[in-house]
Design goal:
Helices cover 43% and strands 18% of the residues. With 731 residues, it is of the alpha+beta class. It has a 9-stranded antiparallel sheet. A 7-stranded antiparallel sheet has the order 1-2-5-6-14-10-11, with no helix packed on it. Strand 16 and strand 17 (538-545) form a beta hairpin. The longest helix has 65 residues, at 26-90. The protein is elongated, with a radius of gyration of 39 Å.
Length: 731
């Protein structure tokens, strides 16, 4: 019983403890909700007031900033005409440089005329036709004689190509383009024909030149422009199937059928490419031509009007002055006065004519520069299967002309004379494999020929080269019919199997060094700069002075690489051709954007940027910026700093980040290490209409004097190199 009582007591205690807890009434709950609501409203009100205060402050700051920007924009607009006029005067160096180029072209023609060395002027059709006709008539030339003559022929071809490339597109007439390209093709065809005829003359004497050990003839002729390998199969030994030319790695592995045939093998390695069709000449569209033509007409009309007004004013002035002459003056004095008064009348039109000429030339140069940056909308032609796209790839190291030739009848000595049978049809090619192979398994009976070629020492391949063969019927390079390609980079030896002999070449991606990783343009001396372009594989340093360029150094995979082009000064166009031929292509074409992911910039903006960078390059250094890829296509961003020659090299130079849209330049608040992009204007800086006036704000007077003293040819050459590399779009 006591235990039962104690248990009931516990239960009572539990109930009592529960009864002590306050029960929340409905009124309390409503009051609590009301308090929480009031608190929430109070917090919201405080947040609203704070937000409104912050927003007002922000709007006030923004208003002040907008007012400041509006004032700066108004100030920029107010002085825009003045700045553009000053820039126009500075940019007079471009038409002046073009005028000097024209004078140089005329001077070179005159120098050639007075030299009287017997060589034709490539720009004169009559002289070229006479030269070609006379050389065609020359017979029985040896290979050595043809090789010697080829130096003149190659020089003429190079001159014609330079005329087409260096002459501004608006100065080239269609008939001249057809004439020059026709002369180039005729010279190329005739040169190859001469090599064939000289080869036939040599092969007629093969038996007299046979090697004592093998009994076959082998000959190698090396020159700066060509290397010729000839092997004549005189013994027809079926076991002699491996051919190696002495002191070279070049050779062939021929099938049994050829080893027992009356044939000769010829490898003519031309260090130039006369097989690939000529590149189309850059010509302006009809729209561009009409724009320039309209401008010319307007300028001529305005100048003629101005001249006629000036003449009328001068005549009135003469009449007024002649009326005021005293009657007592002598006739001689009157005539003297008239002569003095008429002198300015004769000089004024001449001055105006020169100004008009330079203005028109300036417009032509600007249009030609913009034409260099035009992007093609699509590929120029449809590609067949296995055809090499010459917009994407480029041939390097020349062309290897591989031929299997029928051995001509050999010379026979008879009573002190050498009797030779001359075939009317001339040198004939041996067809391999034969055209009629219906009942035979071609792969087994006519296996491919193994070819071993030495790669030209002055050409750089950043990846293993590809081999292409010439399709004579389709007139293009193809990659079919070639197998088992292997390349030994250290030995510079490439081996492959070829189904049939034909011209072959090595190809590389033309855009392997694009886009660029970085670039820098730094002054070196008076009218001399260093342009450094860094790519994935290489770093090129190019010096530019006056109207010349030079490859200063080259690194391949961060290692110094020697090149035959180093320390050789050339004109910009010749220099660009030389770099391309060496495999160092950093020069985009109008089709390059179809194969490379680029940071497209509008051509008019690019042209203005490059022109003004060139103007400032004698005293200011320029460098790439990562923010250039962030801004839109109508703006460019790069770094700039003053760089005078007396200054020592700075370890951490203080670069200024500029944004330029073609019509406005400004300093940016951000720098290269900022986390986010912003177009905010740098404190205590202003807007300007040109780069020249932008850098003038922070530049020294000495730097600006250096800029104004720049040589016009130097500025033009720097601009040409910037236009050719398109650093702002391809970095």
């Amino acid at each position: 019983m006591p235990q039962h009582g104690s248990q009931s007591k516990k239960v009572v205690t539990f109930v009592k403890s529960g009864s002590k807890k306050k029960k929340i009434t409905k009124a309390d709950r409503l009051r609590q909700i009301q308090e929480e609501e009031e608190k929430r409203q109070k917090e919201e009100e405080e947040a609203r007031v704070k937000y409104e205060k912050e927003e007002m402050e922000r709007l006030e700051i923004q208003r002040i900033e907008n007012e400041k920007l509006q004032k700066l924009e108004a100030k920029d607009l107010e002085r825009r005409n003045e700045e553009l006029e000053e820039l126009y005067l500075l940019e007079a160096c471009f038409p002046e440089a073009e005028k000097l180029k024209r004078d140089d072209r005329f001077l070179s023609q005159w120098k050639h005329y007075i030299q009287c060395d017997g060589s034709p002027d490539p720009s004169i059709a009559q002289e070229m036709n006479t030269f070609i006709t006379l050389w065609k008539e020359e017979a029985n030339e040896t290979l050595e004689e043809v090789i010697e003559k080829s130096k003149l022929v190659l020089n003429l071809i190079e001159k014609l190509k330079l005329i087409l490339l260096e002459t501004p597109p608006y100065d080239l007439q269609r008939k001249n383009i057809i004439q020059y390209q026709g002369s180039i093709l005729e010279l190329q065809e005739l040169l190859h024909l001469k090599f064939n005829r000289a080869t036939e003359i040599l092969l007629r004497q093969a038996s007299t030149l046979a090697d004592l050990d093998s009994g076959n003839m082998e000959k190698v002729i090396q020159d700066e422009n060509v290397t010729l390998y000839i092997w004549a199969n005189l013994k027809k030994n079926p076991r002699h199937r491996s051919i190696r030319f002495s002191e070279t790695q070049t050779g062939f592995e021929i099938p049994r059928m050829l080893a027992t045939s009356d044939i000769a093998l010829r490898l003519l390695h031309t260090h130039y490419d006369h097989v690939t069709p000529l590149s189309p000449v850059l010509t302006p569209s009809q729209e561009h031509v009409s724009l320039v033509t309209d401008f010319v007409k307007e300028e001529v009309k305005s100048v003629q009007t101005a001249v006629s007004k000036d003449l009328q004013e001068e005549n009135k002035q003469q009449e007024n002055e002649s009326n005021s002459v005293h009657e007592e003056e002598t006739k001689a004095e009157e005539q003297g006065d008239v002569e003095e008064q008429t002198c300015p009348v004769q000089e004024e039109p001449e001055t105006t004519k020169y100004e008009m000429e330079m203005k028109l030339l300036s417009q032509t140069v600007s249009a030609a520069q913009e034409l260099l940056l035009e992007n093609a909308c699509e590929k120029p032609y449809f590609l067949e299967e296995d055809e090499v796209d010459l917009c994407q790839f480029t041939t390097l190291g020349g062309v290897y002309h591989l031929d299997i030739l029928e051995l001509p009848p050999q010379c026979k000595p008879m009573k002190g004379w050498m009797i030779v049978e001359i075939l009317k049809e001339g040198l004939q090619k041996y067809t391999y494999p034969p055209e009629t192979t219906e009942d035979l398994e071609t792969e087994n009976v006519f296996p491919p020929i193994e070819v071993m070629l030495e790669v030209h020492e002055n050409v750089i391949f950043f990846e293993n080269p590809m081999v292409a063969r010439w399709d004579a019927e389709g007139k293009h390079w193809k990659t079919d019919g070639i197998s088992n390609v292997s390349y030994k980079s250290e030995e510079r030896l490439i081996t492959f199997n070829l189904e049939t002999f034909c011209p072959v070449t090595l190809i590389q991606d033309a855009h392997i060094n694009m886009p660029f990783q970085s670039w820098e343009l730094i002054p070196l001396d008076v009218n001399k700069v260093l342009l450094t372009v860094t790519t994935v594989f290489t770093e090129l340093q190019i010096q530019i002075k006056e109207n010349l360029c030079m490859l200063a150094s080259i690194k391949v995979n961060n290692k110094k690489h020697s090149s035959i082009l180093e320390e050789k000064w050339m004109t910009p166009v010749s220099f660009i051709i030389a770099l391309k031929n060496a495999g160092l292509n950093i020069f985009p074409t109008g089709h390059s954007h179809l194969y490379v992911v680029i940071n497209y910039k509008h051509p008019s903006v690019e042209v203005k940027a490059y022109r003004q960078m060139a103007l400032l390059s004698s005293a200011f250094a320029f460098c790439w910026s990562k923010w250039n890829t962030v801004c839109d296509s109508k703006k460019t961003i790069f770094q700039v700093r003053e760089h005078l020659l007396k200054e020592e090299s700075i370890q951490n130079p203080n670069w200024t980040l500029l944004m330029f849209s073609g019509d406005r330049a400004q300093s940016l608040k951000i720098n290269e290490s900022s986390d986010a992009f912003s177009e905010a204007l740098k404190e205590e800086t202003e807007f300007h209409s040109t780069l020249y006036h932008m850098v003038k704000d922070f530049a020294s007077q000495e730097a600006m004097r250096e800029v104004r003293r720049s040589n016009c040819q130097f500025v033009d050459s720097v601009c040409h190199m910037l236009l050719s590399t398109r650093l702002l779009s391809y970095s």
